[in-house]
Amino acid sequence: MVKRSKESLKLEKSRVNQLLDEENRNCNKCKDKKGLGCEGCFHDKRKKALQKKKEEILQIIATQ
Questions:
Q1: Which of 34, 43, 57, 58 could bridge to 27 as Cys pair (CB 3.0-4.6 Å)?
Q2: How would you write the pLDDT of the chain (64 residues) with one tens digit per residue?
Q3: How far, in whole angstroms, is CA 36 from its chain's centroid?
Q4: Region of residue 3 (left: phi > 0; alpha: psi -120 to 50; beta: else)
Q5: Residue 37: which region, alpha, beta or left (left: phi > 0; alpha: psi -120 to 50)?
Q6: Helices 42-63 and 6-29: angle between axes, nearest 10 degrees
């Protein structure tokens, strides 16, 4: 695993938070989820992936 500075991890977390906010806004306007439900919505899948990435970053920060 590559050792990354705490500052770069914080920047990455901020970037992931911004992407999560954007996906939340897009998901609120998503027309596909009306037929498929949130679980079938692409935005919901993307939000889950971003949330997992954010949790990984937080774990790395906590162990440094």
A1: 43
A2: 456 788 999 999 999 999 999 988 887 777 766 666 666 677 788 889 999 999 999 999 898 8
A3: 21
A4: beta
A5: left
A6: 160
